[in-house]
Design goal:
Layout (H helix, E strand, L loop, with lengths): L3 H8 L3 H27 L4 E5 L5 E3 H15 L4 E6 L6 E2 L6 E9 L10 E9 L13 E7 L3 E6 L4 E6 L5 E5 L10 E3 L10 H11 L11 E2 L5 H11 L2 E4 L12 E2 H14 L3 E3 L16 E2 L1 E4 L1 H12 L2
Helix pairs in contact: 1-2, 2-3, 4-7
Bound molecules: 1,6-di-O-phosphono-beta-D-fructofuranose and magnesium ion (2 copies).
1,6-di-O-phosphono-beta-D-fructofuranose (FBP) binds next to β5.
């Protein structure tokens, strides 16, 4: 059985980069325990304030942010932390070689109903500054807190999946995850249909038409309501995730955040053979203009993403 530490040695000669992934994995392991007993500890519910995105913070959003911060600020390989829960980037005293961008708790609306949530992270070189394209990432990953706690991580090469064992060690369960090229499963919040653009409407209508429609196959729909849950399913068995630009989110540029949601997930999915796009350009080619910038997100099985791109190419 391959441990995370063994895998990291095989993936990179850069001990500092490996230590950043190790710190995020340690934060994930600690959070798995925090989340497991949060209802007993009375840590569910709202924190009583809003974050920079104007969203009500849950107590666990704040706790998760604190846990990630604690693990990174003691790692001298990290110079800066960008977090969904922090208005400004935090600059640490040390001049570490790496920047970490994180969504410390993704899908927090699922917490009160005990459905999978996650921690997403993206690692960039400090030399490139805060606003770098997703293609510049040197590592990315997420932790999914589900029936099992999974760590999915990529350092340039393969996307590997680890499970947290009952001693608190990460054990590799998939050496090289591959997103199936084709799939019959899509994920989108269909309650937003009235806001959709023509391309989204076209793709979903075509899919819902099933065997008798132009796609000539039956589709199923799944929407976990936490990006980590949806992306993990797509990584393991294929499918497509869409949070497109719609008439309600146009002013904000989309719903999901570029630096710590879209970029790391796009880099992981592409590393596993899938594709990602905003509909108009590759997610990994979007030039960031702000640390909390939002972006349309479409990613997953290559054939499905190409079908959506074809709809966008029509106009
Ligand atoms: O509320 P909706 O439209 O179902 O959106 C769900 C999406 O919002 C998110 O919950 C946003 O993430 P946060 O919980 O970190 O703000 C995604 O995980 C998820 O895909
Ligand atoms: Mg999120
Ligand atoms: Mg979050």
């Amino acid at each position: 059985m391959t441990s995370l530490a063994q895998w990291l040695v095989a993936q990179t000669d850069d001990a500092a980069l490996a230590s950043v992934v190790t710190s995020m994995a340690a934060a994930g392991a600690e959070l798995a325990t925090v989340l497991r007993v949060a209802p007993i500890a009375g840590q569910t519910g709202l924190a009583g304030h809003t974050n920079v995105q104007g969203e009500a913070q849950k107590a666990l959003d704040v706790i998760s942010n604190d846990v990630v911060l604690k693990h990174l600020q003691t790692n001298d390989a990290v110079s800066v932390l960008i977090s969904e829960e922090l208005d400004e980037a935090v600059h640490f005293e040390n001049q570490g070689a790496f920047i970490v961008a994180t969504d410390p708790l993704d899908g927090s609306s699922n917490l009160d109903v005990n459905v999978t949530v996650g921690t997403i992270f993206s690692v960039l070189k400090s030399a490139g500054g805060l606003l770098q394209k997703g293609r510049a990432q040197v590592a990315a990953g997420y932790v999914a807190y589900g029936p099992a706690t999974s760590l999915v991580v990529r350092i340039a090469g393969a996307v590997s999946v680890f499970t947290l064992d009952d001693r608190g060690e990460w054990v590799q369960v998939v050496a090289e995850a591959k997103v199936p090229e084709t799939s019959g499963e899509f994920a989108i919040n269909t309650a937003r249909e009235r806001f959709w653009d023509a391309a989204t409407l076209g793709y979903v209508k075509e899919s819902v038409a099933g065997e008798t429609g132009p796609a000539r196959k039956r589709y199923n729909m799944r929407w976990v309501g936490s990006m980590v849950g949806d992306i993990h399913r797509i990584l393991m068995r294929g499918g497509i995730f869409l949070y497109p630009l719609d008439s309600e989110t146009t002013g904000k540029g989309g719903r999901l955040r570029l630096l710590y949601e879209a970029n790391p997930m796009a880099w992981l999915i592409e590393g596993a053979g899938g594709l990602s796009t905003t509909g108009r350009q590759g997610i990994l080619d979007v030039e960031p203009t702000g640390i909390h910038q939002r972006v349309p997100v479409i990613l997953g099985s290559a054939e499905e993403v190409r079908r959506v791109e074809a709809w966008y190419a029509k106009g």
